[in-house]
Amino acid sequence: MNGGEGSGAVSDFQHRPVMSREVVELLLPVPNGLLVDGTVGGGGHASLLLDARPDWRLLAIDRDAEALAAARSRLARFGDRVEFVQAEFGDLGEVAGERGDIVGLLLDLGVSSHQLDRASRGFSYRYDAPLDMRMDAGSELTAATVVNEYSEELIAALIAHNGEERFARRIAREIIRRRPLHTTGDLVDAITAAIPAPARRRGGHPAKRTFQAIRMEVNRELPNLERGLDESVHLIGPNGRILVLAYHSLEDRIVKQRFQQWAGNDRDAPEPPSKIPLDEVRRAELRATESVVTVLTRKPLRPQPVEIADNPRAESARLRAAQRNAG
Ligand SMILES: C[S@@+](CC[C@H](N)C(=O)[O-])C[C@H]1O[C@@H](n2cnc3c(N)ncnc32)[C@H](O)[C@@H]1O
What's the rounded Cα separation, in Å, for the pair 38 and 137? Predict the structure, then answer.
């Protein structure tokens, strides 16, 4: 981890782009035109991509104003090849819809090192800060609302689901017992008290999974990913590519399922009904949506050990790519 804890100056925005060689290699074959970086962060991937192909223009999106300011500064040398928009990539249709076909879309999910390292943002269990965790400081839902206003059942469910935390019910009960919680420190104390001592000593910081779960709820990360992907498939031009770097198994599952569905080999899709008049219509609809894309990564690509040694944040990364078919 790096970044200027506390100062927040743009020049402090250090986030090492994950699997950057693989990202650039996978995007290089697309036609010239408009690339979209839906999670531009500090502009790490974006600057490598703009250097790699002078014929690309870039629409740089982030919902975090601080990230966008950092990207603006880092990408200034590319002049009017880059346009910056503070937005939610789930609204991609609205943001990019008027600009014609997109030749490539990159989504590098989750939080940046900078967001984690800025104590005041409340993302990290390492610092005592207000319970915020919003990527977009203008959005309404904060971590304080989640922990102080959600029901015990809902808190337990989201910690179990988003955090894959086996002590979710105990943690939720302890949060309710201690309400109101004011700071991330209060939340860490509640989590630590709820987890049995032997389990606390295993598997990293005891608050890691619960913080992740609450952050994903505050920022609606899974629904936004679904929306963004569903929008993107209509906006990518022939032979254009969609790349997603996921750091969480639930995110990766959404990407995998969407890609399979668009490629026409979605094993979970219901069989079309066989004996009713609508049958033909349904089959035609299915044919029309079949093989919209070719999946380029049957299994997700993982970072090389040397990258993980150099940047531990890369460890959980999974990179998937799909190409929009020309026909
Ligand atoms: C892992 S960082 C991206 C780092 C970037 N690839 C780089 O190399 O500097 C993720 C960024 O995506 C942004 N983000 C996450 N979800 C988003 C969403 N749904 N819409 C827009 N931005 C989002 C975060 O604010 C954060 O800045």
Answer: 18
